[in-house]
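Standup notes
- HV: blocked on the assembly model, inputs below
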Amino acid sequence: MLRNIRRSIFALIAPVAIITTSLAQTTQQPPTHANILRGEYGRYRANNDLLFYHLDIRVDPERKFVSGKNTIRFKMLKDDTRIQLDLYDNLKIDKIEQVFGGKDTNGKPSELRAIALKYERDSGAVFVNFPETLKAGRIYTIDFHYSGTPQTIGRFGGFTFGKDPAGRPWIFTACEGEGASIWWPNKDQWKDEVESMRLSVAVPNGLTDVSNGKFMGATDLHDGYTQWNWLIQYPINNYNVSVNIGKYEHWSERLNDLSLDFYALPEDLERAKKQFAQAKGMIEAFQHYFGEYPFKKDGYKLIQAPYSGMEHQSAVTYGNRFANGYLERDWTGVGISPRFDFIIIHESGHEWFGNSVTGADRSDMWIHEGWTTYLECLYVEYMYGKADGLKYTNGYQAKVQNQRPIIAPRGVNATPPQDQYFKGALFINTLRSVIDDDRRWWMLIKNLYQHFKYQSIMTEDMIDYFNRETKRNLTPIFNQYLRHTAIPRLELKFDDTAGTVSYRWQVDEQGFEMPVRVGTRDNWQIIRPTTEWKTMKTSLKKDAFQVATDLYFVDVSKS
Ligand SMILES: [Zn+2]
């Protein structure tokens, strides 16, 4: 998703002193108890592996009330008597039960029975205690019943009971920042995902719920409500699970054997049909670079929503006013963004990076946002050619702040800075220039995606992949861009009498070396600076000597 953009634009025009102070506070303040509980992959999370959720809820727009249960199936990895789940404290736990049966120990059908479990709540965490030790390797099921009015907070709304422009209920979830436990009970972290999930959402007759996965039919409950059933047949991260409840019109298309389903309000139907037509080209572009759309059995959906947009898996939400660019702006300011709908391209790009390949900790969210921003650049290259792709990419340079490292502290629910998007994409573009062989680059990034699809990974996994595949040590380059604040600075010292230039990298990272193109635009020459001074002959004077700063995101100083 796109986050923090509006806030950071304000930060840019705010006095420098204020930025420095608030930065010092964000970096120095110890994480809160709640953020440690949410962020840490502690013992009571690590002792189990999620298999399946069935979230079965009723949403009452009149009372602004949600009630129901999540059935949670998990496999124990270690013997233990307790697991950690999460649910915001303002929501009530009605009961938590361990469910037995369905099959007896000989595999024969047996009666279902349930026993109530004890639990303790602490700052959004729910520790569930079992009367007998759960055994490693065995599969267990609990039903977690809850109810209440979820909070409407965060940039996108968390859980919002809203109204559409015609005054009908329009209810949605968008909770990447706050976490899914803002509206339903789950193991609210990024590392462990269920392998599949069912969603049953009961809403008043006449409204539609569009959620993730494959539509499994609507059932009239004969009490004024209809239950909408969805089946997610792939791993899914919690924040992607969503409901979109409204008076939706629906139409379908196909792209070869992939089903495309679109949902918009009746009044916006014609505009939506025109704008959503961009989805096909987007999918073709990303399939070209990375391979098949990741959630084919679930299909691709694009759903109108009242906020800018969110990458909800196989159910991307859209609120970009049916216009190209981003909220009618030329997003990277170089005249290319107005050719396409930023939200359709960006949020759907997350299907490959964010939803299929997922960061295992919020600290490494650039795996979602840096890569998906780079996917925008690839979309431009696919549609309009390499030169425009490069122009679009470098339009992002103006948005980079270099105030904090892209990778945030691990295990404390920390949010990385906005640089994860723009600097992240410029770094990946730099890496392409370091590889310096486009055929190899296309193979590397396609295989990267294929290697890690449907997995939760850390930056180290990605670095290992690149090092292994290229047989090079690219770790210092990754580290300088992702784990330090500054970008590499190429220091150049000219000696006009001797006709030489001396050069070295000024960086934080030990052992840093990176090739770079220098000279003139029509006659680049690759040099291989390290952190030690090297000298070479040049016929170019200081002013004429250029560095290819569109291919490598670096600073240059000349003296
Ligand atoms: Zn995003």
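- HV (later): unblocked. The two ends are 42 Å apart (CA to CA). The chain has three domains: 5-32+352-483, 43-245, 489-558.
- Next: hand off to the docking folks.
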